[in-house]
Amino acid sequence: MSDPVGGRQLPVIQPGQGDDSPPIFDKVGIVGLGLIGGSIALAVRQIWPSSLVIGVDDKDVLERAMVLHAIDVAADDPVVMAEADLVILAAPVEENLRLLVKLEDSVVGTAVVTDVGSTKRAVVERARQLPPRLTFVGGHPLGGAPRGGIEHARPDLFQGRPWIFTPADDSTGDALGRLHTFVTRLGAIPHVMTAGEHDRQLAFLSHMPQLAASALMHVVGEAVGASGLALSGRGLADTTRLASSPATIWRDICATNTQEIHAALNRLIEELELLRDGLGGDEAIDRVFDSAAGWRAVLSEYVPRRPKE
């Protein structure tokens, strides 16, 4: 399988479901058991029943994870991952940055370390402080759901979805290869790019759309109130689906990708101003609508149909 972004050749492996093949990693430690971390845990338990899944989070989250049989070992202290050979940081971005500093004291052996955060430059730079026995490869699965939390986690969350890796340099070759195999078995499609390119692309693909949807819902709600919203159709609901996202996660994303998000927002604002100034004629409306329809058709070829909420 050829990586269309990084140009590297990746292994072709069909996703498995609890077969007899040996696990890629024997002991998987996951810090943060929300939607993404919980879904990884459920998938690992399903595909590699012999793997030990170690969960680190607050006690109430751990209790829910145990009830869902997502993890084998639970603790609110990362020291429980002492013998993990794969560590996945699935907490908010700023918390992942803090965890990286302490990881050397928590994991005593050789391990591959990755994360699932939506910004990459800051975490890749921070990971340079890790000792050589802990090999870090930045990661970002582009799979999600309208609602977060482990109660919405599911093992098929990553099926057919991209999973981006941002290695700091070529020294991560073996770790990168194992992670390719790992996420492919989860059903994801691995891609490789630099941390800077990831942050630039995600500013347009994810971060700016999130801010735009939230701002749109804010403006509409403040303008028409509950009585006005009662008159709306599916168009507004579909357009603003992202507006349900919690601010806690997005504060960290905005703080660690400010420059790229600023540029993406400026680009959107420029188009909105052109539309505003061209409302009296056809040219601006036709240009944007025709372009949008064409790119929307391209997008529909890559994004799977969203399951019913």
Helical coverage, percent range: 40-55%
Radius of gyration: 21 Å
CATH top level label of the largest domain: Alpha Beta
Tell me what portion of residues adopts beta-strand conformation: 5-15%
Number of domains: 2
- How would a crystallographer describe the biggest sheet? 8 strands, mixed
Structural class computed from helices and strand pairing = alpha/beta
Number of helices: 10
> Which ranges are low-confidence, i.e. pLDDT below 50, for 5 or more consecutive residues?
1-16
Number of strands: 8
Average residue pLDDT: 90
- Could you tell me how far the N terminus lies from the C terminus, measured between alpha carbons in angstroms? 33 Å
- Looking at this structure, what is the CATH superfamily of the largest domain? NAD(P)-binding Rossmann-like Domain
CATH T-level topology of the largest domain = Rossmann fold
The ordered H/E elements are EHEHEEHEHEEHEHHHHH
Bulk shape: globular
Q: Please give the order of strands in the largest beta sheet.
A: 3-2-1-4-5-6-7-8
